[in-house]
């Protein structure tokens, strides 16, 4: 299967593509539809969730990715095993994730950031680590909203839905904001989050 990737998306290597559980899929559109259905199943799992009491844990993040993408990809819920054009070295994924979760707990406990800045910083760090072969942006956006609702008790961000998963002006603004955050300039990403928040 040939996959066309939107700007900023990370290509899968042949072994990762081999993890597709539905070999009849031939187009990006078919794959998107299948993944979107699986994401809806992941939301339903989350609504029934009683196992995870602490959402700022590695176990929750991996389990949630598996429920969001596990009906499509065999490797869902597992750290990537290859290095990509973005993301930390694969051997440091676990360490960097623990650092982020520890930082996030501190931010929550000490009320370090307002709603929008917390969302921007947490989301960016999770995307930058790049835990998985695929689905990192979607997973990070959804997880950020889960943390905001279930840990901070504030409304989630309106990221732009499926528009961010396709090439276009909204995605370009988002990708540029993430690249600015890579340089420790969170202003554009905070502005993006603020302009797309739910009321």
UniProtKB/TrEMBL annotation:
Residues of the Fido domain: 56-195
Top-level taxon of origin: Bacteria
PROSITE patterns in UniProt: FIDO
Active-site residues annotated for this sequence: 130
UniProt keyword annotation of Cytoplasm present: no
Alphabetically ordered keywords of this record: Plasmid
Cytoplasm among keywords: no
InterPro entries to which the protein is assigned, alphabetical: Fido, Fido-like_dom_sf, Fido_containing, Mobile_mystery_prot_B
Protein name, UniProt field: Mobile mystery protein B
Naturally occurring in which organism (per UniProt): Thiothrix fructosivorans
Taxonomic lineage: Bacteria, Pseudomonadati, Pseudomonadota, Gammaproteobacteria, Thiotrichales
